[in-house]
Each structure stands twice: as structure tokens, then as C-alpha cells.
Design goal:
The complex is a heterodimer of chains A (152) and B (335). By secondary structure, chain A is an alpha+beta fold. Chain A is built from 6 helices and 5 strands. Chain A is elongated. Chain B is built from 11 helices and 17 strands. In chain B, the strands form 5 sheets. Chain B has a 5-stranded mixed beta sheet. The chains are: A alpha+beta (152), B alpha/beta (335).
């Protein structure tokens, strides 16, 4: 009898903990956040899934949702990634891809576009749960604050 | 019975249509085709001349005609500017008729200098109109280049005129940096050299415009030419089955009172590139000549800043490549 009670208690705890963790899971409306970002960004163009894979290595199997946008003016460094990773492994991969991208943009601007180089150097990555952001913009701090406060 | 008649009629119609089509094609193949490399040319001053004929029909058997030879005369495809004005030059051969607008702006350099910007900074040549559908042309192709090509990439993302070919382009990159491995391309999550990226992409052909940043950074044009050969050699070695289309590099935009020193280097490089491509038998698309204005600089209407190309300029780039490939097909040189 004691054993049965112990098992029931254990199950109750497990269910309770998992319910709590679901409650605490970060949720974000990426579309709404991106729309908010657009007020601070120059004219942007969103990459298709094929372009995400070709140019930044971001595979559709690694995310639930991804918005990757670059400046329409090819001489401006502005770039934004808003991604909800599938899981922690995917999140780690996305983080590595973002580092590679920063390096790539650094090389592009370093000896060629000094003002844009400064923007790239200020670029940063932010995370909330499985949500990931790469932010390259003169307004990077504002974008970061908005990303963090978009988490529910 | 009725069905048999319908079947017979359809069959006859197909025979007539296909037979008619093939007889025209065979005749044109046998006699050759006319091809003019411009739909409009404006000479800057009297005395200039240019060969606009690149077809397969024997040039001396084509009936050439200028509506006003006192402005521009024509002989065996070579136009000669004789006076200020505009006219039409036509070419007729075995039922084929081609024509182009031809004009001349001024009698002398002094007269040219007195003309307004809207005339002097306009493009000197407009390529011939192509009816090629660009999407099959650019299928399984990569456009290789620097920031100029990169700007085309963004324009293509907006318009999808070319069916989204791959762009292997990096802002600010030079031949020297590709050659030394100092700059890599990013493709599908990998950092790769230019030649490895081409291999990784699996494309059949590349269109390559590189050298603009070397002109800025390298003093001696001969050094740029040497580097160019090395880069092409490495691409070929790694990708023996990929067809490489070289492209001349576009001139720089200047206001008329500014120095032309950089454009002189670009011209020197392009002259070498034309010779190199001819010697090597490598296809060369002479993109630059369609961007030139009457000062030899980038035409005003295609310029984005000093060295970059705006959206209409990108559109024309696609048309130049399509027209070139159409010419190749006419010459039965499909690669």
C-alpha cells in the first residue's frame, strides 16, 4: 500500500513539475517583434528558407520559426535574426552559425566600409529560452531590450 | 470514321507546322544568322567607328543600309560617324531583317564638352533586345563577384527575375584575397575558398566579375592580371566541368570635372582581360561597354554611388548576359 502511495505521489510530483516548466517556457511573438524592429531598421529584405540555408547555413530542420532579414542596401550592415530553435542542440548550432556570420560581416566591412564595420563590431547575440536573436544595427541596444521584453 | 478524320487533320497540321519550322531553321542554319550587338549606339564625336556585327551570316553578303549616311554610314557591319544627328542602320539577308538606331553627338571634343549632362552622361550603347527567358539561363548557375554582384543579389531577392541563381559574392573582396585564402565565402554553413564554394554549390556554370577592388588596392595592373589568371586556374583545376564566363569590370561613375585615373586602370585591365579570354578561348561577356557613357565613365542612369550599380543597371546586366548567350546559340557555340 505504501508503495502504491509513493508511486502516486511521485507521479503527481513529476506531472506537477512538468506542468510548471511548461508554464515557465518562454513564449515570443516573433512576427510582432520583427514588425517592431522594422521601425528602427533601414529597408530590409527577408531571406527565404533556401537563402537561409545557402548563405548562412540555417537549416529549416533546426528551427520552429525563423525570421532572417538583411538590409536591402547591400552596403549597409544591418541584419536581424529572430529564431525559435527546435531544441537546445539546435540552439547551439544556431549560435555557432551566428558567430560565423559576424566574422563574415567583419571581413566584408573591415577594410572597405569603416562605418559599417563599427556597426558590425557592436553586433550582438541574445537568447531567451529557445529563442535566439542576432542583432546588427546602429540601434542594437534598443533592439536587444525589445527582444528581452518580448519574452512572456 | 469521324475520329479518323480528326486524327488525320491534326497529324497533317502538325506535319505542316513542324515541317515549316524546321525548314526555316535549316535555311537559317545553312545561310547563317544576322546578329547586331547593339540596338542603339550614339557615337560621341565624328570620326569614331565600331563594328556591331557578330552574326554567322557572311558579312559581305548582307545588305547593309543607313537611312542617312551623312550621319552614320555602314560598311560590312562597321559603322562610321560622319556627322551630328540620328539615323537607322539596317541589315537584310535571306528574309532576316535587323536594325539599330545610330547617332553622333558632336563634331569635336569641345562641342561634346558643351553638351548637357543628360546627354553626355547617358549610356553610349544599348545591347540588342534579347528574347531569351533568363530563368533557364541562370538555372544551376552562380554569379561570382564582390559588392557590385552582392547588390544584384538583393535586387534579385526582391524581383526574382532570374529565378534565384546562387550568388557567390562578398562585399569588399578582391582577387588577391581570394587567391591567398585571406577571404572565404560562406556556403551552407561552411567557410570555403572560392573554388571550393563553386564545387560545393554543384553549379554548371559561373559568371564572374572580379577585379574592381584590386584596381583600388593594387598599384600595378599587371599584378592584378597575374592574380586573375591564378584565380581562374584554381577554379578550373577544382571544377573542370564548370563553364566559366568571364566579365569585364564596370567603369566608375564620375562627374565630368573629376579625375578619370581609376577608370584608366579599369580600361587597362579590361583590355588585358579581352586578350586573355581570346587567347585562352574562355567566353568573355563584355559587360563594361554597355555601362559606359560618353566620357568613358559609368553611365549616370546605372550608377549607385561611384562604383556600384543601381536596380536598372542590375536589370541590364541580366539582359547583357542573356543576349550574349543568345549570340552563342546563334553561333552554335552553346557551352
Amino acid at each position: 500500500m505504501k508503495k502504491i502511495i509513493a508511486v502516486i505521489l511521485l507521479l503527481t510530483m513529476v506531472i506537477g513539475i512538468s506542468a510548471c516548466s511548461r508554464d515557465k517556457e518562454v513564449q515570443m511573438d516573433l512576427d510582432a517583434l520583427y514588425a517592431q524592429f522594422l521601425e528602427k531598421l533601414p529597408a530590409m529584405i527577408q531571406l527565404s528558407e533556401a537563402d537561409m540555408l545557402d548563405y548562412i547555413g540555417l537549416d529549416a530542420t533546426s528551427f520552429d520559426q525563423a525570421i532572417v532579414a538583411i538590409s536591402l542596401d547591400g552596403l549597409l550592415a544591418d541584419e536581424v535574426w529572430l529564431v525559435r530553435a527546435k531544441d537546445q542542440n539546435a540552439l547551439s548550432q544556431i549560435r555557432e552559425l551566428a558567430k560565423m556570420r559576424i566574422q563574415y560581416k567583419t571581413e566584408e566591412t573591415e577594410n572597405y566600409l569603416p562605418e559599417q564595420y563599427a556597426v558590425v563590431k557592436q553586433g550582438l547575440m541574445a537568447e531567451k529560452g529557445l529563442y535566439f536573436a542576432l542583432l546588427v544595427s546602429p540601434e542594437v541596444m534598443t533592439l536587444k531590450t525589445e527582444f528581452e521584453s518580448a519574452a512572456k | 470514321m469521324k475520329r479518323r478524320w480528326i486524327g488525320l487533320s491534326v497529324g497533317m497540321l502538325l506535319i505542316v507546322l513542324l515541317g515549316g519550322y524546321s525548314s526555316v531553321s535549316a535555311e537559317q542554319m545553312e545561310c547563317g544568322k544576322i546578329y547586331l550587338n547593339v540596338s542603339r549606339i550614339d557615337f560621341s564625336i565624328v570620326g569614331e567607328s565600331e563594328n556591331i556585327y557578330e552574326g554567322t551570316a557572311p558579312v559581305d553578303q548582307i545588305q547593309w543600309k543607313s537611312e542617312d549616311p551623312t550621319v552614320v554610314s555602314v560598311e560590312n557591319g562597321v559603322l562610321m560617324a560622319n556627322g551630328v544627328g540620328k539615323t537607322i542602320v539596317s541589315a537584310d539577308y535571306h528574309g532576316q531583317h535587323w536594325q539599330c538606331e545610330a547617332g553622333c553627338l558632336a563634331n569635336s571634343l569641345e562641342d561634346l564638352a558643351a553638351l548637357p549632362d543628360s546627354i553626355v552622361l547617358a549610356p553610349k550603347r544599348i545591347p540588342c533586345k534579347t528574347y531569351y527567358d533568363p530563368i533557364p539561363i541562370f538555372k544551376n548557375s552562380a554569379l561570382v563577384g564582390d559588392s557590385i554582384t552582392n547588390m544584384w543579389k538583393n535586387h534579385e531577392r526582391e524581383t526574382n527575375q532570374l529565378g534565384h541563381p546562387l550568388f557567390l559574392a562578398k562585399v569588399g573582396v578582391s582577387l588577391t584575397e581570394f587567391n591567398t585564402g585571406n577571404r572565404l565565402l560562406s556556403l551552407r554553413g561552411k567557410s570555403l575558398s572560392l573554388w571550393d564554394a563553386i564545387e560545393e554549390s554543384g553549379v554548371d556554370r559561373i559568371f564572374m566579375m572580379l577585379g574592381q577592388n584590386d584596381v583600388t588596392r593594387v598599384e600595378n595592373v599587371a599584378v592584378i592580371c597575374q592574380t586573375y589568371q591564378e584565380v581562374v586556374g584554381k577554379i578550373r583545376e577544382k571544377n573542370p566541368n564548370v563553364v566559366i564566363y568571364l566579365e569585364t569590370i564596370t567603369p566608375e561613375f564620375h562627374h565630368r570635372w573629376q579625375s578619370n585615373a581609376r577608370n584608366e586602370k579599369i580600361n587597362e585591365f579590361n583590355r588585358w582581360l579581352r586578350e586573355y579570354a581570346a587567347e585562352e578561348g574562355t567566353p568573355l561577356i563584355d559587360v563594361a561597354k554597355y555601362y559606359e557613357n560618353h566620357l568613358g565613365y559609368m553611365a549616370n542612369e546605372y550608377a549607385w554611388g561611384d562604383i556600384h550599380i543601381n536596380n536598372p543597371g542590375c536589370d541590364m546586366w541580366g539582359e547583357i548576359i542573356a543576349a550574349y548567350l543568345e549570340l552563342k546559340e546563334i553561333r552554335s557555340e552553346v557551352l
